[in-house]
Structure formats: C-alpha cells, structure tokens
Amino acid sequence: MKQLTPAEESYLKVIYHISEGGKRSVSTNDISFKMKTKPASVSDMLRRLGEKEVIEYRKYYGVNITETGKKLALQTIRKHRLWEVFLVEKLRFSWDEVHEVADELEHIRSKLLIQRLDEYLGFPKFDPHGDPIPDEFGDVRARPRVALSDLEVNTTGQIVAVKDSSAAFLRYLDKVGAYIGARIKLLEKVEFDGSVEILVDNKKTIFMSKDVAGNVLVML
Amino acid sequence: MKQLTPAEESYLKVIYHISEGGKRSVSTNDISFKMKTKPASVSDMLRRLGEKEVIEYRKYYGVNITETGKKLALQTIRKHRLWEVFLVEKLRFSWDEVHEVADELEHIRSKLLIQRLDEYLGFPKFDPHGDPIPDEFGDVRARPRVALSDLEVNTTGQIVAVKDSSAAFLRYLDKVGAYIGARIKLLEKVEFDGSVEILVDNKKTIFMSKDVAGNVLVML
DNA sequence: TAACTTTTTTAGACAAATCAAAAAATAATT
DNA sequence: AATTATTTTTTGATTTGTCTAAAAAAGTTA
Ligand SMILES: [Mn+2]
Ligand SMILES: [Mn+2]
Ligand SMILES: [Mn+2]
Ligand SMILES: [Mn+2]
C-alpha cells in the first residue's frame, strides 16, 4: 500500500523540505506552520503517515522521513517543478504566480502525463525559481550555490536560484531587476548593516538589504 | 455559496450530460451507473446538490439541472475538453488515452490557467472527440451532425465527432482508419443488418456494423 | 386492486481531513 | 528540584464521500 492521498503527499513534501533544511527531527509545529493547519491535525496525519511507513514517528519527538518517503516526496516535487516550468515557459505565468496552481497540479496521477510533459518541456533541469528537478528515479543533481550575502567584494557569479519563493519576494526581485541567470558582480558590502551593492549584467547597479541578499543564491 | 467540490462537479457534469441526452428527469440509477457509485451515495449527493441549488431535486422523481447548475457544468466541461486538446495536440496522447487524465485535470481551479491554456491552444472550438468546447460564458456553438448509420447511399460528408468515446471504440476506429476530419461517402447500406460500406478520403473502403456507424457522427 | 418487482431513500458505519478545547508530556526557568 | 511555559497529543465534533443492509415508495403485472 504505497499509494498516498493528495493531502498525505502535501504533508510528506513539507516534511521532506524541512528535513533538507538541515534539522534532525521535524516538529509538529513546524509542519503545522508550513501546512497552515493546526497542530492537532498534524498529529493525526503523522500517525497515518507513520502507519504507511513513509515517516518514522516517535510521539513528542518529531518525525524523520524514511527512504521510501523520500522517494515519494521527490516524485511530488518533480511534478510540482515540471508544472511550474510549464506554466512559465508555455503559459506565460510569472514566477510568482505558479506556486499555488502547481500545488494542485502536482497531485494529478498519471505516469505518462509526467513523462510527456518532461519531454515536451525539453527535460528541464531547474524550475523557474532555480530549484533542481529530480529525475524519474528521484535523483537530483544539485549545483553548489552560495547566498549573495556571503559573497566577497569583487567576486562575480550568476544568480541561479532564490531561497524564498514567496510571491512578495519574487515580485520585489522583478522590480529591482534581479532574475535567474543574471551575471552579477558584488561591488560593495556595507559592514554596518550587511547590505550589498551589485552590478547586474555589467549594466545596472542594484542595492539590496542583507535580508534580500541572503535569499538570492549565486553560482560562482 | 456557489463553490463546488471536485466530487460535486463530477456528479453535476454527469447529470448535465444525461440531461442533454433528451430525457426529462435524470434518475438516481442512471447517475450511479455513470459515476460508478452506489445509488445510496447518489441520493446523498443529490440532497447536497439540491441544497446548493444547482439541481432541482424531488425525492423519488429524479432531478433536473438548474440554470446555475448548467453554467457550472459547462465550465467543468470546458476545462475537461481544453485539457483533452492539450494532451492530444501538445503531449501526443491518443484520443483514447485522454479521458481519465482530463477527468482529474478538469477540477484544477484557476481562472488564469484556463484562459492561458485556451489561448495557448489557439482557442480550439472542438475537442479530440469532436465535441464542442463551451466558451468562458458557457456558450456552445453546436454544429448539425447526423449518425453515419442514418446517411443515405451516395451522400458525402465529413466525420466530425463520435457518440461513444470509450477507449475500446476509439481504438477500433483507429484500427479501421476512421478519424475526425475524414471525408467520407456512403457507398452501400445493407438492408439486412444495417451495416455500411464507406469510402474514406476517396481512397480506402471501410465496412462498419450498424452499431459502429451509429456512433460515428457526420457533418454533411 | 392486490401482489410482486424495481427503484430510491434511509439508517448506520467508516475513512479522510480538519478544528477547538482539554489533557499530557517535554522543555525552560527560577 | 519545583514551578512555569511550551509543545504535542487526545478527545470529541464536523464535513465530505463512500458503502451495506433495511425500509419505503413507485411502478408493473396479474
Ligand atoms: Mn513551488
Ligand atoms: Mn519552484
Ligand atoms: Mn472526455
Ligand atoms: Mn472529449
């Protein structure tokens, strides 16, 4: 019985994402925050996910995702990101509009659909936010990336992803003219507040607060 | 409260389709057959749909769809058919593979998605089975069509739709070489069993049983 | 009209997903 | 270590969607 319901898939995806954030065990509260549900609902869901053996659940001590759980989560993430590419590349959505729709589309269950979509999109390796798209076996080829805020002055690089992909943040980046693929050079870093000044495509200078720069990921 | 759940949308769509089939009131049994659920489940759903005023429900006497119900059903049908076009035109699905996937995709709720999909597909007027795609206001421009079995000998026409769009039937049509858009001429009609012989694209002759011909729709 | 058949509804149960309120366990602080 | 604060789980309810079995209504036939 490895078949998950849409809700279970969503919870598992969230658990996977929090796990990847480095922390050892994932807490009920963290999940409830990300899922926008109450902790009581989470406890209930954890019991079910535990029964299906996609997580290891020790009451009061949080959860750890299992290997099968990880595989399943990566399949959902793959679908989510492929749909995001579709929405942006083919339907002219902007990168801040795709997330909610992809959150629905990711639960459509058809192997053929995803294979064909992947092919149709030209087997993309990254989604509109620069996140890697797992292959059909759940393998992700991650590229080394560093926060813009951690760069040293005069270093050059390329914006490859964003850490925060909330609509508000993405629209802000649009406004200031930062985008995935942009060639950048760190011109100045203010000691006082950690804010930075960067040169984009050898043309335009942008100022960013430390907070913003910390959510922009760069490949050297 | 005009928002329907996916299940409610599916029931309503089925009720709409049966209604269009000419019958006055739609029976619980007919719905249960099409929905592949038990009559008891249907009764329950009819109560809910009645409360939401998308159908008029008189216990024991079947249901009639209301005007608002019709509007909503047509929106779901629009989405279903647009997705079918997408699957066939863009993802190389064959016309017998699209139905189940479209039945899932049709419930994705995003106005923008459907607008953009429509635009991306070039505002198609018919789906892969020749059925008309309602516009965003629920208007359908139906074209006059007649069953191949009702044609007179020597009449010419064009195959524009199928009445039965089960995978088995569609694959059979593929096998014999009948397709939407084919120019045909009725060569012979056997009195004995109602079977017909047709000429396709002035090239190939096909034999069809009365049953098959009755499910192929032609425009003169 | 009465008896039988078919259809439909009701009653009672269950699984999934959610919540609020209360209880229990764990963590933090004096 | 005892008290307080926080987190997590439990309990009990609710909604949606489904089922089986039983009851009721409608339709058909003799
Ligand atoms: Mn996303
Ligand atoms: Mn993304
Ligand atoms: Mn269909
Ligand atoms: Mn169709």
TrEMBL record, chains A, B:
Keywords: Activator, Cytoplasm, DNA-binding, Manganese, Repressor, Transcription, Transcription regulation. Its main location: cytoplasm. Residues 4-66 form the HTH dtxR-type domain. Pfam families: Fe_dep_repr_C, Fe_dep_repress, FeoA. GO terms for molecular function: DNA binding; DNA-binding transcription factor activity; protein dimerization activity; transition metal ion binding. Transmembrane segments: none annotated. InterPro entries: DtxR_MntR_Metal-Reg, Fe-transptr_FeoA-like, Fe_dep_repressor, Fe_dep_repressor_sf, FeoA_core_dom, HTH_DTXR, Iron_dep_repressor, WH-like_DNA-bd_sf. GO terms for cellular component: cytoplasm. It is found in: Cytoplasm. Belongs to the DtxR/MntR family. Homodimer. In the presence of manganese, represses expression of mntH and mntS. Up-regulates expression of mntP. This is Transcriptional regulator MntR. It comes from Cecembia rubra.
